[in-house]
Amino acid sequence: MPVIDIHQLLITIFQKNAYGRLSLFLLQAILFTGAHFIAENLLVIAGYGDRDTARRIFFQRAKVLYDLNVEEDQFTLVQGLLLLSFWHGTPDDTTGCWHWAGLSITHALRIGLQKEVSSRDVDMHPHQRGLRRRLWWSVYIRDCLTALWMQRLPRIPNEAANIPILTIEDFGDPISSILLPHFVANSAYLSSVEVQNKLASCFIDYSILCVHVSRVLQIKFSLPKQHLPADEIGSVENEMASDEMGDSLLPRLRKCESELHGWFLETGSRYDSDIDAGASDIVRIQISLVQMLYSTALVYLLSERFALFPTETTFIKTTQHARRVTEIMTDISKRKIIQYLPVTAVTIIVSAITNHVMEISSPDPATRSQGYQSLSKGLMCLNELSHTYPAAGLANILYEASTFGSSASLPFEALHRGRGIYSSFTRRIHQTEESFRTSLESCMVMGNNQSVLESLSGPLELENST
């Protein structure tokens, strides 16, 4: 995210600028985020043991500084809190990504970042104005993506996005347009103005896309949930209620789909074709993220439509977008850069996998065959992501448990010892495809729940943690 004035940061650090001020809180937040991407051997040489240890130390330092109110500047607090929103705590940790993203929103609203610069601030330097706008859009994007990750309603309503969309000029000096946290791992790209302009363009398109994704999430997670007794399911009254809800929802789904299509047409061919073979890894990742987020939003929309009015056309469209997501991520995996994807990638691939599972139950042999191939690729990507994000490994365990039966003993404690678990489940795992879909969707609900076992319907035998 372009939330830091890197040009000023580098001057302050390397030239020991007597007039520069470097926030200790913000520095620790930057180090925490950058530790995710820097070569692990460098962290070991620095005495941190491994990547997880380094990230935890830097996070704890930033957290203590925030708790002690060491940093008083609200603008700097928003910058640092946004970076801390990439933290994912243990099940008993109440300060996960949702918590820190929420704090960044609170401080951003406190200083009026959601408002365009007023007439009394016309003397504000264009560079500072651009940084201010970039910071607000970063807050908005993090709210959208953490909502997607946590499977919740976004906290910022679309009406709050009052600031005009970003432009290339808002990124100022090319060196400051590099997108954190990739700066730490890709400092060699700083000399390439072309690369940085491409990253800035991707971020602009990404921000507009997140406005549409936020609307999709508002539709998906604001739907009334009916909890009817078993003997009322299929009743005439229930069917009539479902028909009325579907009739009122369908226009909203179609409008949202039309807006997404309009965004796609406006972006031209940048995301409609394969990425240039000569593109740098960082550009490839950013373009791929935009492509996958677009397809994931359509999968969400089309899945809701299919649930209300199942048609073969809707199923085919949903399947096509899910397969595209899997193919893009498979390509990233083959290029050995999947570890640089953000945690949102877990939600994206899980949503594609749930669709592949539905393909397997299709009566058409060709669809089933394609479903198995796509599922295999998706699970392979999920396994690759598990080396970086524990939630991906947990999703793999759910798949195995649903395949071999709900009586399978899940090694939650073993996972907790290694990297931690970030999920709470609302249903037991069953062998049916429908229950597997629900279980995998619950994998996307990662965050600060009290216990992974708290809401299970019954006890499960866990591995001995000693």
From TrEMBL:
InterPro entries: Fungal_Detox/Toxin_TFs, XnlR_reg_dom. One of its GO terms (biological process) is DNA-templated transcription. GO terms for molecular function: DNA binding; zinc ion binding. The keyword Cell wall biogenesis/degradation does not apply. It holds the Pfam family Fungal_trans. Keywords: Nucleus, Transcription, Transcription regulation. Coiled coil: none annotated. SMART domains: Fungal_trans (SM00906). The keyword Transcription regulation applies. Residues 97-171 form the Xylanolytic transcriptional activator regulatory domain. Signal peptide: none annotated. This is Xylanolytic transcriptional activator regulatory domain-containing protein. The lineage of its organism: Eukaryota, Fungi, Dikarya, Ascomycota, Pezizomycotina.
